Amino acid sequence: MGWVARYRSPDGPAQIQLVTRDATAPELAAVSVRVGAGVDLAYADALRHGYEIVHPLTDEPWGLRRFLVRAPDGNVLNIVSHRDD
User: Fold this and answer.
1) Whole-prediction pTM value?
2) From CA 26, how far away is CA 14, in angstroms rounded?
3) Residue 82 neighbours by CB under 8 Å, 6+ apart
4) Which of 9, 65, 66, 79 is 20 to 30 A (C-alpha) from 59?
5) What is the pLDDT of residues 69-85, one digit of tens each?
6) Residues in CB range of 56: below 8 A, 6 or more apart
7) What is the CA radius of gyration of the chain?
8) b/e code 43-62 from CB counts within 10 Å (16+ = b)
9) Chain centroid to CA 67: how far?
């Protein structure tokens, strides 16, 4: 697509995505991490640890459930689940 690169492990469960633009987030994420059905738990953990939530847990119209969080090093991470997870 010219603005996204996706990589996955040979057996499929590990996936990472790099993007150069985002339609709805206030900041561009350094990386997207697909966590599957664990996205709600990941969000709760991020809140519990006091991490800065850049974009709240949201069901996006294109089929993602995601949130953006600032890592301790300052990078923004897009933590995502797809509708089929």
Assistant:
1) 0.77
2) 26
3) 34, 36, 63, 64
4) 9
5) 999 999 999 999 987 76
6) 67
7) 12
8) beebeeeeeeebbebeeeee
9) 6
